Amino acid sequence: MAISVVVIDDHPAITAGIRAWYAQATPAIEVVAEGTTPDVAWSPPGDTADVVVLDLNLDGTASSYQHTVRRLVDAGRRVIVYTMRDGQDVAMSCLDLGVAAFVTKAEGHEHLVAATVAAAENRPYLPPALAGAIAANREPLRPQLSEREREVLELWFQSESKQLVADRMNITPRTVGTYLDRVRLKYANVGRPAPTKAALLARAVQDGIVDLGEL
C-alpha cells in the first residue's frame, strides 16, 4: 500500500515537483491532497494521510507556524517541515514541537523522499541541515541516563518498532516503552522535552549518546 501524503504549500511549482518526486519513489508515495492552507490536512482525504508535508512560509509569512505545527502534532499527525528557512533556531523549535523531520527546500528531492518514508515507518531521519542544527545546539542540562536506558535508546533508533528492540534485548515491548517513557520524563524534568522519536534522537545526539556519523 502506498504511503499517503498531504502537501501544504502555496507555491504550485513546489507542489508539482513534490508530486513528481513521489511518483518515482520506492516504496510508493501518493499525494492524496494538497492546498495552500493547513485546512487541507483536516478535510478528507487529507485528514487520514500518513504524513503531512508543511511549508512554514504560507502567504509569505511564518508568524503562525508554531500554532499550526503544534495542532497537527497534538492530533497525532506525522509532520515533515519542508521550508526555505534553514536557521538553527527554527529547526530546533520545530523538533521541540514534535515534527518527524525538518528538511530545507535546498536539500532537494532525495532527502524529502527519504524523510517521508522514515516518517511513515516511525523512524527518525536526519538530513544535513537538521544534523548541523542539532550538532551546533549543545544544551548544558543533561539528564542522567542508566546504561540500560542508553542501550534501549540506541537500539530503538536503529529499529522500526519497539517489538524489534524487545526481540534483540529479550524483553517485552511494554518494557521497552517503560524505558523510553523514563528517558522522556528525565528530559522533560531538565526542561528539554522530547515528545517524538525525532526529538529524542536530537537530544541523544546533542548529549553524545548517539554519534551522527553512525547514522
Automatic annotation (TrEMBL):
<keyword id="KW-0805">Transcription regulation</keyword>
<dbReference type="InterPro" id="IPR001789">
    <property type="entry name" value="Sig_transdc_resp-reg_receiver"/>
</dbReference>
<feature type="modified residue" description="4-aspartylphosphate">
    <location>
        <position position="55"/>
    </location>
</feature>
<dbReference type="InterPro" id="IPR039420">
    <property type="entry name" value="WalR-like"/>
</dbReference>
<dbReference type="InterPro" id="IPR036388">
    <property type="entry name" value="WH-like_DNA-bd_sf"/>
</dbReference>
<dbReference type="Pfam" id="PF00196">
    <property type="entry name" value="GerE"/>
</dbReference>
<keyword id="KW-0597">Phosphoprotein</keyword>
<dbReference type="InterPro" id="IPR016032">
    <property type="entry name" value="Sig_transdc_resp-reg_C-effctor"/>
</dbReference>
<keyword id="KW-0804">Transcription</keyword>
<dbReference type="GO" id="GO:0006355">
    <property type="term" value="P:regulation of DNA-templated transcription"/>
</dbReference>
<dbReference type="GO" id="GO:0000160">
    <property type="term" value="P:phosphorelay signal transduction system"/>
</dbReference>
<dbReference type="InterPro" id="IPR000792">
    <property type="entry name" value="Tscrpt_reg_LuxR_C"/>
</dbReference>
<keyword id="KW-0238">DNA-binding</keyword>
<feature type="domain" description="Response regulatory">
    <location>
        <begin position="4"/>
        <end position="120"/>
    </location>
</feature>
<protein>
    <submittedName>
        <fullName>LuxR family two component transcriptional regulator</fullName>
    </submittedName>
</protein>
<dbReference type="GO" id="GO:0003677">
    <property type="term" value="F:DNA binding"/>
</dbReference>
<dbReference type="InterPro" id="IPR011006">
    <property type="entry name" value="CheY-like_superfamily"/>
</dbReference>
<dbReference type="Pfam" id="PF00072">
    <property type="entry name" value="Response_reg"/>
</dbReference>
